[in-house]
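Quick note —
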Amino acid sequence: MSTIGKALFLLDVIADLGRDIGLSDLARLSALDKATARRFLVELEKHGFVEQDGETRKYRLGAAPVRLARIRQARFPFVAVAAPFVKALADEAGETVHLSEFSGGRLATIHVEDSSQAHRVIVDVGAALPFHATASGLAFLAFLSPAEIDRALAGPLDRFCPQTVTDAGAVRELLRETAERGFSISRQGFEMGVISAAAPIIAPNGRPVGALAVAAPTARADTARMLDIGPKIAAATRGIAEKYYGTKR
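Predicted structure written out below.
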């Protein structure tokens, strides 16, 4: 990994934690020695990407990423365009709906509409969505090229709960089903008691840029329910793509 890559990975660690962290713990989590971690932090702090609490000496995310995010959102208002579709789908399905975007080699949640029901699935903005273990990941992966799918499934696949599919051949079968019907279904792949369906958001060049998913407790929804919701998700993703890119594909 390059020097810039290590510094950005360090920034990712801080962002993912959601709390202030000291130098020693940060060095350990990022697999860096303390001197290197400190050097990166000094530079990141100088440019506003991290900040250090004057009393605890712990680090947190700085203002620079927020400024860049606002600039990007102003120029490429993906969330603003998608939000009405996300809300409409949440109202219709009565379940939590979340929007994800592919960036930096991973798929991450960028917008959530929570279900109004007391028993609902909680999805955090910024959460990474593993390709093999989530409906969003399967929907995204199914519409990539065979070579990209091979790379994504080349290494060991993490198990997040007993039902996680970790056999590459079995994942490929899920991808085949997803490509055929236009949306994916994940049954407790990432979290116990949760079933989800998702469809990809496709750019005019045919490549997926993100996904839209409906997540529900298994106590209230089953595969039949997801098969009913799936076409509605796919319709919403087509609407998002058409409005965002300004043309029908």
